[in-house]
Amino acid sequence: MIHIKAKQQNVSFEKNVEKLAFVLSAHLYNTLEADKVIEEAAKRSGISTGVIKAAWDAAGEVIRTWATEGHNIPLPGLGSMRFSVRSKSVQNIEDVKTSLITARRVIFTPAKEVKDELQATKISITCYDKDGNIVKRVTSADTNDVEEGEDEGEENQNGSNGSNGSSGSSENNGSSGSSGSSSGVAAPTISGTTPFDDSTTVTIAAAEDASIKYTTNGIDPTATYGNDYEDAITLNASATVKAVAIVNGVASSVASKVFTKNGSQGGSGEEGM
Fold first, then answer.
1. Could you tell me which residues are beta bridge partners of residue 221?
2. What is the pTM assigned to this prediction?
3. Do residues 256 and 240 lie in contact, with contact meaning Cβ atoms separated by under 8 Å?
């Protein structure tokens, strides 16, 4: 069962104007420690925790080593992962340099079995009014599309293909996943540490000629809806940051990144939103 919460909150950006809507977001649970997973695997398999931990550590070392060498690595029972980059493209060869890389990334592609199980899983929605009271519960078996890892051609920041390959190691602060846009405007990138303890700083980057609008209330920003991004954002609670780049009034596709506070079961996002 996938648990979702629908919280009634003010989605208006106009001063002294209240516009209430039920905003859906995933119910976030505490991050599990590796020891907890190893202990559970030992119980299910009948193999000692020491043996499983040794295999866990060895597999992790091999995956990291081969991934940094440019391989697409299978993750048993889950899918595959690889390292890549998000970057800008240039027309002149003299301008090719490492500063074109805007983020190092980890791309995970789920196995068919994982996608099938996710698609078959029921969803439970708990609705809360603006005061935090539960007003309705809904359980649905409706199916939805399951998103996969991005195609190689969608990773270039300005929408051009062919400039990305496997590279380096992943960074802890990561970068958001985003897809190309039929508008021709490249989606922005969202970076910041997750999970985090007390707070985390979130930065959003886009092409030089683009402006940025973002939200932390679960609603997709548009060319006319959202906060204007001018400086780094500080999050003190779990939230999903969504952003679009805007050029000449045309918005890109929505970039999105989930930020989870350790020990939190979900939050409303940036203070003051």
1. none
2. 0.49
3. yes
